Amino acid sequence: MRKSTMGVCAGLALSTMLLLGGCGQSDLQAPKAAQATRYEYNATVTISPGDTQAGIEQRYGGAALVWQPEAGFAVLGLHHKPAGGQLSALDLTGEPLAVAANLDVFGADGTSSAWSGKAVQSVQLEGAGRAYVWSGGRAYVWSGGNGVVGGIPENSEAWNQIGLPVAWAAAPKLGEGIKVAVIDTGIDLQHEMFQGSLVGPQDQWDFVNNDPVPQEEGSFSDEAFGHGTNVASIVLQIAPHAKIMPLRVLTPNGGGDETTVAQAINFAVAHGARVINLSLGSVTKSDTIKRMVDYAASKGVAVIASSGNTGNERITFPAQDASGKYMMAVGSVDHSDKKSDFSTYGDRIGVMAPGEVVWGPVPGNLFSYWSGTSMAAPMVAGSFALALGQTLKAGIKPEDLMELMRRNAQDVRELNKSYGYGDKVKRRLDVGSFILAATQP
Fold first, then answer.
1. C-alpha distances out from residue 380 to 9, 318, 350, Å
2. 322: pLDDT confidence band, cut at 50, 70 and 90?
3. What does the domain layout of the chain look like in residue ranges?
4. Which parts of the sequence belong to the Peptidase S8/S53 domain (predicted)?
5. Which residues have a catalytic role annotated?
6. Is the pTM of this model over 0.90?
7. pLDDT higher for 56 or 117?
């Protein structure tokens, strides 16, 4: 069963009809490919420099999906547990090998979209539509050419809240040269908003279909349709000259396997990502994904993870494991800095960011909004891209940026204490103060 924190999307009512601009549903999907092999279980094993991939696969009876001899580990996909449900093999260290469930363990952390019944009930908008035709004039917003910081006027309140105008003035490269991996449902590769903003095709992959075209698939009746497209756009609204590395690991219903997430992290590191955004989570701790995040950190790659949407202190994984100098968990606040009702919270969260009604592109050259901690995380990922695109101040290294972001965030404890959250909702992203503290003028 998928361990997802996504809200259930309702069908479209007449009052929420989409203006499709004459595009049929077939226009929104890439040609179908054979699905990648899926595995019931996975395990992370210790390997030594003398081991071969074939030898390890024979020893454990699985497929080596991630092979990292220099780091001393491999991630295996397994079709079966040993007889009796117990693993008879030992790791090369002599320790029993832990086998974990693999299928649909992860889910997207977007709680609602404009076409879901939940969002329609909570947000009233002018007009009957909830996903609007993308106007041609919006295609150049990343350059700032329309005079709106962040590019999309509908998000101006959020951008002012986090100090984005100050950040843009202090970081004129706007993330240039920085690759940000968005590990998600894929994106609408043909959307006008992404033209010129993606890495080359050699740096993209679909781990669901096992092909080099990570096109968002599905329809508006699917729970997670459009999730990755919105998430990627938020990174670009913060850091418009960064490059998005789209890596598809989630299906249109929001589910994804541990091994595909592990492979995507491995791919992102190998292909030069400086930041990885994980707007997904699981209620089950994953040793495999923790190992992959630690590996990314060892290579100097920042990993940003959404905290989950159950509204309590049960932060999802991998955000629950956030620690060290290269990983941060992100929760959501509203425009007054109060914790979003849906957002998880607690001491593991590095910063909060505004994750309610965040506008961006929708597959099919459309334009709409999502809410969720999934929308807060890419604001932080984009903020790191802004900093990494600039020359850092003397004495400041990339590994110092997480702590600098926390230190320069806005203190929102007193406000949230009044709502009963104690000391567990602490900081809200202030990207302006962060950039001023981290980068040279």
1. 26, 16, 10
2. very high
3. 41-101, 105-438
4. 175-422
5. 184, 227, 374
6. no
7. 56
Residue with tokens 């329809």: 219
The dihedral over CA atoms of 428, 416, 234, 232, expressed in degrees to the nearest 10, equals 100
**Distance in angstroms (rounded) separating the CA atoms of residues 245 and 43:** 27
Q: Which residue in the block uniquely carries the two structure tokens 């981290």? A: 438
Backbone angles phi, psi at 245, to 5 degrees: -105, 95
Per-residue model confidence as pLDDT tens digits over 23-77: 333 334 444 455 789 999 999 999 999 999 999 999 999 999 999 999 999 999 9
Tokens of 291: 């190992």
Section 74-100 average pLDDT = 69
User: In b/e form, how buried is each residue of 259-290, taking b as 16+ CB within 10 angstroms?
Assistant: bbbbbbbbbbbebebbbbbbbbbbbeebebbb
User: Which CATH topology does 105-438 take?
Assistant: Rossmann fold (3.40.50)
Checking phi first, is residue 354 left (phi over 0); if not, alpha (psi -120 to 50) or beta? beta
d(CA 2, CA 311): 19
User: How big is the CA angle at 371 (ends 432 and 314), to the nearest 5 degrees?
Assistant: 90
Cα torsion 303, 278, 316, 112: sign: positive
